[in-house]
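Can't paste images in this forum, so I'm doing it all in text. The chain is below; anyone willing to post the predicted structure tokens underneath?
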Amino acid sequence: MLAETICSAVSAAGLGIAAVTAYRKRFLTALRITAYSLIPVGLVMTGAVAWLARTAFSPLAWAGFGVLGASWALFALTRAVERRRGLRAGRAGTGEAKAAPASPSASAPALGRGTGRDARPGKPSSAAASPSSSSEDFSDIEAILKKHGI
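Text version of the structure:
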């Protein structure tokens, strides 16, 4: 009886924190906190807290499994939204090194075809055919190699 009360209080506190977080317009974090706070209530409802005192086939237990399923669905939803937004790579504290942005002076590929209507598969573009553009491409490559000490 005491364990159920404690689990309910922990869940209520978690839902309160989630409400405050949602009020601050951090909805993804609020959903994650909600998912975490539903776990204790779900465990109490399934009978995991007092497994020997209850039967596993009661309607309350199946409702608890439903609550745990809802918690899992919220976790999956927040992960899917994070992946869609690309927030996981940019999260602070992950310890991952961020890739350096491309140099603004980087040129187009040396063997690339021209774009537009006049570009034909059999003909190279006029920019790729000129010798000055190919030397510029090599100077860019040399600069990149020098930058990396090669």
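The CA atoms of residues 20 and 35 lie 15 Å apart. The mean pLDDT is 76.
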